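Purpose: get a first structural picture of the assembly so the mutagenesis plan has something to point at.
Setup: two entries, given in the order below. No constraints added.
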Amino acid sequence: MTLRVGVVGGGQLARMMIAPAVEIGIELSVLAEQEGMAAKLAASAVGDYHDEQTVLDFARGVDVVTFDHEHVPQPVLRALVDAGVAVHPGPDALQYAQDKLAMRARLDELGMPQPDWAAVSDVAQLQAFLDDHGGRAVVKTPRGGYDGKGVRVVSVATEAEDWFAALAEDAHGGALLAEELVDFRRELSQQVARRPSGPVMAYPVVETVQRDGVCAEVIAPAPHISTRLAEVAGQVGVAIAAGLEVTGMLAVEMFETTDDRVLVNELAMRPHNSGHWSQDGAVTSQFEQHLRAVLDLPLGDPAPRQPWAVMVNILGGPAEGSIDARFAEVMAEHPDVKIHTYGKDPRPGRKVGHVNAVGDDLDDVVYDARAAAAFFAD
Amino acid sequence: MTLRVGVVGGGQLARMMIAPAVEIGIELSVLAEQEGMAAKLAASAVGDYHDEQTVLDFARGVDVVTFDHEHVPQPVLRALVDAGVAVHPGPDALQYAQDKLAMRARLDELGMPQPDWAAVSDVAQLQAFLDDHGGRAVVKTPRGGYDGKGVRVVSVATEAEDWFAALAEDAHGGALLAEELVDFRRELSQQVARRPSGPVMAYPVVETVQRDGVCAEVIAPAPHISTRLAEVAGQVGVAIAAGLEVTGMLAVEMFETTDDRVLVNELAMRPHNSGHWSQDGAVTSQFEQHLRAVLDLPLGDPAPRQPWAVMVNILGGPAEGSIDARFAEVMAEHPDVKIHTYGKDPRPGRKVGHVNAVGDDLDDVVYDARAAAAFFAD
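Result (structure tokens, whole complex):
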């Protein structure tokens, strides 16, 4: 008998579960959206995760179902639960990662620190929110946004007119999420792992650097924040994992405000880009931790192995030639940097890989990681 | 285009190449001896590696062929080279891992430190060797031995009579290898990686603890030896890698004698049990290093990540139930220990996995690794 984890979705997060699964001795299988995806080595099925029967068939061969992304529709998730499948994170938790309005409402109930927000159903409501918040706001589509998509900073409500029009066409009706434009010093991410039976383990809070709404760089632990704020971030992460009954990895993206508070920005209920440093920088990587958590196995030590770890994304990749054609140069110049690529073709803006560097001196580590990643860009 | 490495042999060494291959973005495929082997996830073909056509067909789909073991016959290796396939290590190097008599003769030519030895073709010759070496000697079959098999300590030559009889039946004739019984303090292993283009990188020399001829435990770096002897070990490793033109990983197993010398015991031209600590204890694991080396990519940093790393093999596994049924207990008690299992069924004496522990205090690390491994035994 072998423990069997099934991952819905064949992207890089599923791919990066392969290494710890093989090492520990967990059988990983993947339901991929199409052939040749990042996680193809473990793909045991190819099919549409919107289709209930496809997902039920896939689930039959595994002990627990988990996810590469949060897009599996609630009816499909509920059908899995009804069929007796262990699903982690479960539909009750995932709804808050799928719907930003539901997330905001629930975090308010839990007393979590977050920006002012409102559900706005039309231009007039958005304009009222703008008028109350200094004439600028962030507008988000509650569903389907990622990497800066579905997010817009507006100063007049008509700038979201097209989204309101799309809402009106949507049979479900609904509203957009308007959020206060937070005056922040930097962005943080707090990761937490939680088992179905309850135990929780928090990683050190990290600093994330975004470019054009996409994560570009992560420094672990967050180098510039106070011990108190790091503790608060950890407490918020643990409280959200427990309050939403998240199982597996949870990432809480936060703003560190100029007046020294943290405010929750986004949630992700899966391994997350802000935790890739842990592959080479922590005793237990987020991918191993996710597998342990969804199997309800005791969690691993999330402590850093070295004082500093820096992750830099490879965005887009080389304009000419393949990614691996750059390996020789990077490896020659940076024998201590760890290269991770996802088997994806280069394309502008696409996350095709990342590098991790670890060490004692933050400046050195940052330089090392950035310089190595630069070899993959043109 | 992706770099493609093909591994002949589907055992745990091939399995443990999967993780770094997936992470870096190297396509790994495996020619497995049968279905369901340790490296099954990457098995693209199942077939007999003694069959030239089977191996040639497998090689067609990859950029370089390497090995899980040293048992591929020379004619098959030569056929690959003749067909223009990149083979690492190549047949010229592998002959010395396949034939212990050839190895001893070549190491003498290279001036490497080794025990007194002789090729003995009959009982009389062995008795003469015994008489010259205090009445005890180690007798080895030149081919096919591993993990203590094909090795016998004798004090009268007739104790090897059955092996001489088998030799006589062998159409090739031949001889046994007689070696001086070395008075050693402990056993060491020196690993070296070498690229086809020449560059070499040495790992720190480690101490190996054998039980019943099988590696039970490894401590990295070797804790009790002098700086001078560590340097000598490194020099011997590098000289052998260069002298035999080994490509990929080389392990040189050595005796540390009571008079403070090192003597070469065995060679392995592949990742080796004595290097499993590097998965969690070195910047570049031996499995990543092997892939880099056989692809002639720049080698990674072999430096330890922490002062100490200890590997303890899981030999046999649980007498009752499956290996993974023990995960929960081990993980609960040892959240910082890294578990590696090979997808093999428990069987007395069989290597079914190992654990790695790393840290600053050797006593703690040894305790941690041994205690964790003990959960898998009955």
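DSSP finds twelve helices and 17 strands in chain B.
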